[in-house]
From TrEMBL:
It is an enzyme of class 1 (oxidoreductase). It catalyses: methanethiol + O2 + H2O = hydrogen sulfide + formaldehyde + H2O2 + H(+). Coiled coil: none annotated. Belongs to the selenium-binding protein family. One of its GO terms (biological process) is protein transport. It is a peripheral membrane protein. This is Methanethiol oxidase.
Length: 462
């Protein structure tokens, strides 16, 4: 069914407003009088959690052994390491908080912190990637919530997923394919240092991760690591949706490179050897940096922060937070993606702004600002969510509150937005829907920063 409601995580951290973060419910029904508006707000009981990513307590499993009941949404606090469980099944348009796991439980039981991406596993458990330890030092890995044994009103914290000795230096995103018994995870950054803001001097100090990790899903062991370069920062990881497919993509924020990773098959294996799967990576997209003046560095990277793949595995969508555009690539016909659609927000390099573009391999001149429903859009495209039919791409423009404040101060003052991009699913092509705008600058307590998006009816990232 077409999406009629969206849940969006919103934070007040790094703004001048002392209010708790909240989960916003957005009306997406075009026939509704409240279309494109926030119809419900669920505030958290604490301040400065930085609600960031979110995920379902259960999703569609290609093993067909877990019912897909999206009745609970898991909200981890990126800064607080607190975990909220929200009941969206009882009243989908007015969710309520039903469980809270305090950070001290995460710290003591798992020695983890700075919780990021959430996904449900084939066995019904819930996996949450972490970026650091309780002190904010870099530490990758995952914590596990018991998704089958419900206690009182919520979920139990089971502990770490991986063996302690195999925790990567940093972590952020992950995806898995059960039929190939594999989980692939990306890097992130050291929260204690990069959490204060972006500093170019940190590029050579190990603050930004550069590994792509391949795990044995059933044994929970690390089997391969790919070093993508110290200036890479691989963030978003997506497998193709086809459960038989053994390939996916990872975006490297700082280098502007997108790699395809895939399973390498060995048709002839000696009988005395144990069969072992191997994976490989290849560069398939490179978005060139722009030579600029008036910015923190002389070259501005694309900073590709999110990837989304359409449910038919035909198109790959890329958000460039700093350059300010969304790109649509056709990936179904061969292993080399082909650019077929693009829309531009371009807030960082607008004409007349503080940044001057000295050399650009893609644009001939600096563009004008994007205006939707009489509102000028600040901040580049960040998190995306695609409808199941692939015709509507929704996007928010907050990446991380301290980095928002550093690179897009007007975004923090004016508040986030959620835009809708109309997609040509036949030939490719993207167009901003000028009749749709969710303006988080008009919230009752003041402008806030919006990030992750999910639909209870199903979406392209869960």
């Amino acid at each position: 069914p077409r999406e009629e409601v969206a849940y969006v995580t919103c934070t007040y951290r790094s703004t001048c407003i002392d209010q708790p973060d909240f989960l916003a419910t957005i009306d997406l029904n075009p026939r509704s009088p409240c279309y494109g508006q926030v119809i419900h707000r669920l505030p958290m009981p604490n301040l400065k959690d930085e609600l960031h990513s979110s995920g379902w307590s259960a999703g569609c499993s290609c093993l067909d052994n877990v019912p897909a009941k999206r009745n609970k949404l898991i909200l981890p606090g990126l800064i607080s390491s607190r975990i909220y469980v929200v009941d969206v099944g009882s009243q989908c348009r007015a969710p309520k908080l039903c469980k809270m796991i305090e950070p001290v439980d995460v710290f003591w039981k798992c020695n983890k912190g700075y919780l990021a991406v959430v996904r449900s596993l084939p066995n019904g458990d819930i996996l949450i990637a972490n970026m650091g330890d309780p002190a904010g030092n870099g530490k990758g890995g995952f914590i596990v919530l018991d998704g089958q044994t419900f206690v009182v009103e919520g979920l139990e914290l089971k502990g770490n997923w991986e063996h302690e000795c195999e925790a990567p230096p940093t972590g952020c995103d992950f995806w898995y394919q059960p039929r190939h018994n594999v989980l692939v995870s990306s890097a992130g950054f050291v929260p204690r240092i990069a959490g204060r803001g972006f500093n170019p001097d940190d590029l050579k100090k190990g603050v930004f991760g550069h590994r792509l990790n391949v795990w044995n899903l059933s044994c929970r062991t690390l089997t391969q690591c790919f070093d993508l370069g110290e200036d890479s920062l691989p963030l978003s990881v997506k497998f193709l949706h086809n459960p038989d497919a053994a390939e996916g993509y990872v975006s490297c924020a700082l280098s502007g490179i997108i790699y395809r990773f895939y399973k390498v098959t060995h048709p002839v294996v000696p009988l005395f050897l144990v069969q072992r799967d191997n994976w490989a990576v290849e560069e398939v997209i490179r978005i060139p940096a722009k030579e600029v003046s008036g910015w923190i560095m002389c070259k501005m990277p694309a900073f590709t922060v999110d990837l989304v793949i359409s449910m038919d595995d035909k198109y790959l969508y890329v958000s460039n937070w700093l350059h300010g555009d969304i790109r649509q690539y056709e990936i179904s016909k061969n292993c080399k993606p082909r650019l077929v659609g693009q829309v531009r927000q371009l807030p960082c390099i607008l004409r007349g702004g503080p940044v001057t573009v000295c050399r650009d391999e893609e644009l001939k001149c600096q563009p004008e600002p994007l205006v939707v429903k009489c509102k000028r859009i600040y901040g580049g495209p960040c998190k995306m969510q695609l409808s199941l039919d692939g015709k509507r791409l929704y996007v928010t423009n907050s990446f991380y509150s301290t980095w928002d404040k550093q690179f897009y101060p007007n975004l923090v003052r004016e508040g986030s937005v959620m835009l809708q991009i109309d997609v040509d699913t036949e030939k490719g092509g993207l167009t901003v829907n000028k009749n749709f705008l969710v303006d988080f600058g008009k919230e009752p307590h003041g402008p806030c920063l919006a990030h992750d998006i999910h639909f209870p009816s199903g979406d392209s990232t869960s």
